[in-house]
Amino acid sequence: MTSVCFYFEVHQPVRVNRFSVFQIGKESSPYEYFNSQLNQKIFEKVANKCYLPTNNLLLELIEQYNKKFRISFSLTGTFVDYCRQHMPEIIDSFRSLVDTGAVDLIEETYFHSLSGLYDELDEFEEQVLMHKYMLKDLFNYRSTVFRNTEAIYDNRIAKKVSDMGYKGIITEGTEKILGWRSPNYLYKPVNTDIKVLLRNYTLSDDVGFRFSAKGWVGFPLTADKYVGWMSQNQGDLINLFMDYETFGEHQWEDTGIFDFLRHLPGQVLDKDHMDFVTVGEAISRFQPMGEIDVPWAISWADEDRDVSTWLGNDMQRACFRELQDIGRQVKDQNDPHLLDAWRKLQTSDHLYYISTKGFEDGAVHSYFSHYDNPYDGFINYMNILQDFKQKFI
Amino acid sequence: MRIAMVGWEYPPFKAGGLGTHCYGLTRGLADKNIHVDFYMPKTNKKVTSDNPNLRIIEVGETTVFPYDRPDDKELEGNFFESVYRYNDLVVEKVKGKYDAIHVHDWLTMKAGVQLKEKLGIPLILSVHSTEYDRSGWLSPNQWFIDIEREGMQKADTIIAVSHFTKRICVEKYGIDPDKIHVIHNAVYPIDEGEKQDLVLFLGRLTIQKGPEFFLHAAKKIIDYGVKPKFVVAGSGDMLPKLIRTAVNLGISPYVIFTGLLTEEEVRHIYQIASVYVMPSVSEPFGITALEAISAGTPTIVSKTAGVAEALSNCLRVDFWDVDEMANKIISLLTYDELHRTMAKEGRREIDLFTWDRVANKTLEVYKGVMM
Fold it and tell me: How far is A324 from chain B (nearest CA, A)?
C-alpha cells in the first residue's frame, strides 16, 4: 500500500512601498512601509484565479469520493490577514474544507519568516504560537504537524519544534540528507524524537514547475500518466508538497491544471494499492525508517535546496543582520504597532527578492518579484530598515 | 569570404561607440579568417592593422564628423556637400571582388546603396544610432531621416545594436522587423582599480546623453549630505551651459569638468570611479556602461538605453527621474554590500560580452544574406 499525501502551502507576502533614501527619518508611521494597494490587487487577483476556484473544486472532489480524497494545507498568517481584510469568504471556504474531516491544517511561523535561523529562537517560538492561536481561533483546529518557512530545516529547528510538542515536521527530500535512501518513508532526526515527512521533489515539481513546460518529456501531463508514475514508486507514502498557487496562478487555467486535479483522485483510488492520507494520518500510520542528520539548514527552494535563496549574498546577509538587531531593541519597547511592522518586514519574501542567483533560479525569483532586479530590492528594503532603526529605536 | 566594410572612425581615431564597434568587429571577423577591407576617411592619426586578413584603406579627406549637427545655417551647405563628397569618394575607391558590402550608420549609407547597385552584391547595414537618438527626440532633422530611411529600405539586411533600436527602425522608419537582426555590442574589459569617492558621467556633452540630469541628481545628493566628487568627462556643445548650470545650482566645488580625455585617461577614470551614470535620453546601446562595469564600477543606466535590455547587473532609471537617480547613487555610496555585490556580479556578467560573439553573430547574418 502506498499513500499519497498532498499538501499545499498558501502564502502571500506583505509587499513594501517604494522607499528612497530621502524618506529615511522623515515623519511617517511604520504602516506606510507597506503597499496596501498593490497587496490588495495581487491578493484579489490570485484569490479569483486560484484560491476560490481551487477550494471549490477540492470540496467537490472530497464529497464526490466520500472523503477518501484527503489533503493538507498550511495557511500563513499574512495570507489569513489578507483574507480577513479583503475577502473573508475565503476563510469560510477553508472552514468548509476543514469541516469535512478530510483536511488537515499545518502550523508554522505566522509571518513566514526566517526566525528559525536567528541566533536565539524566542521570536521563532512567539510566531509559532501566534499561528497556533490563529488556527484555534478561526478554525478551532489544533495541529500536530509543523512546516517551517519554505521547509527550512536543520537539527536545531527539529529539536525546538519537537520540544514545543509537535509530532511531525515537513522538509525537503533532498539527496543531501538522504543519500541513496528514498523520500517515500518517514524518518527521525538524530537528535530528537519527531517524525519527518520528506517531500518527493521529482513528482512534486512535475506538477509545480513542469506541468506546462512544452519542452519537457512528460508534456502534456495527464492524471492517468502521473498516477502511473506514482504507482511505480516504492515506499509507504508519496509526499506531494507544492505552492497552492500552482493551481490557476503559476499554471494558468488554460494549461489544463484544473482538469488534471479533477481527474487525479479517481485515478489514485482506482488503484488497489493506493490511497490518500493527510499529514496527521501519515505520522500516526507510519514509523520512521531511519535517521537523518542535518547540521546545516536545507529547504525546498531553488536547485541548491539550502538557505542560499535568502542568505546567499552579502546584501541579503546585511539585511538579515539588521533585521535581527532591530528585533532585539523593538522587543524592549512594548509597542504592539512597532512589533507588528517589524514582523511583517521579517517575511522571507523580502530577502528572496534580493537573491542574485543566475539562470533558471533567477528566472523563478524574478517571476515572483515586483522589483526590477535584486539591487532595487535591496536598496528599497535596506532604506526601510534604516528608517525603522533611526525613527523608532 | 571577402567583405568591403565602410565606416567613418577607427581607433586610435574615434569619437564614439561606432569606432569601438568597428574595431572589435573587424578584428573578430579577421580572426575567423574572413577577409575585411575597411574603408574610412583619411585622418591625421595613424590607423593600421596587424592582421593580414584585415586591411584599413583610407579613401580621402573629409571635414565631416558623424556626430556633428548642421545647426548653424551657414555651415549647413558645406556640411551636406562634404557628406556627398565622402560618399562619392568611397564609391570610386571600392574596387575588387567582394561577397558583400557592410556599412555603418547614416554617413556611409549613400555609398552603400550605390555600391550595392554598382557591384551587384548584398548590402548589410548596421544601425548604431538614428537621427531620433542624436536629436534627443527634439526636432529631428528630416535630411538625416531621409538618408536613413533610404539606406534601411535598400539594405538587404539590417543589424541593430539593440531591440530598442530595432523598434525605432520599425516604428519610425517603417522597416520590416523580419529584416532586422539584433546584435548587442561587446567590450574589451578594463582592469579594476582603487576606488575613490567619485561619481562619473562620461560621454559627449550633447542633449542625447542627458548630462544636465546628472548635475541635477548631484545637487540632490550634495543637499542630502553625501559629498563625493562628480566628474563630467567629455566635451560637446553643451559644455558652457553645463558649467553655468553647476554654478547656478551652487555645486561647482564638487563638480569637475575634464574635457575630452585620452583613451588612457578614460580607462583610469573608469577604474577609480565608484559609480558610473549614463542618463541618456535615447541610447541605442551604450558601450560605456560595459566598459565601466568591466572596471568593477557599478552602473546606473537610463531605461531608454539598449544596454539596459542586455544587462542584468545594472540599475535602471528614467533619465528624467533625478530623485531616483540620486537615491540609487547615494545607496551605492552608502551600502558597501550593494556596491561589492554589483561590482562582483557585474564583472562576471561582462565576460559574456565578447567581440568574438559579435563577430560570430555578424557572420551568421552575412551567411544568411548570401544564401
Answer: 17
Looking only at the bridges linking them, the beta strands covering B2-6 and B35-40 are parallel
Q: Which helix (H) or strand (E) holds B84?
A: helix B73-93
Which homologous superfamily is B2-186+354-370 in? Glycogen Phosphorylase B; (3.40.50.2000)
Q: Do A22 and B335 touch (CB under 8 A)?
A: no
Q: Which portions of chain B are predicted below pLDDT 70?
A: 15, 61-77
pLDDT value for B69:
63
Nearest by CB to residue B338, choosing from A315, A358, A372, is: A315
- Judged against a pLDDT cut of 90, whether residue A105 lies above it is answered with yes
Q: Can you tell me the mean pLDDT for A230-252?
A: 95
Give chain A's mean pLDDT: 96
Are B220 and A376 an interchain contact pair (Cβ–Cβ within 8 Å)? no
Whether A317 has its CB under 8 Å from any CB of chain B: the answer is: yes
Task: Say how far apart CA A351 and CA A299 lie, in whole Å.
Answer: 15
- Check residue A6 and give left, alpha or beta (phi > 0: left; psi -120 to 50: alpha): beta
Q: How far does the CA of residue A368 sit from the closest CA of chain B (Å)?
A: 16
Flag whether the ipTM exceeds 0.85. Answer: yes
The pLDDT tens digits for B164-200 are: 999 999 999 999 999 999 999 999 999 999 999 999 9
- Helices A36-46, A77-86: axis angle to 10 degrees equals 90
| Number of domains forming the structure of chain A | 2
Instruction: Confirm whether A302 is domain-assigned.
Output: no
Where in chain B are the domains?
A: 2-186+354-370, 198-350
| C-alpha cell at position B343 | 561590482
- The predicted model gives A264-281 an average pLDDT of 97
Alpha carbon distance B128, A111 (integer Å): 50
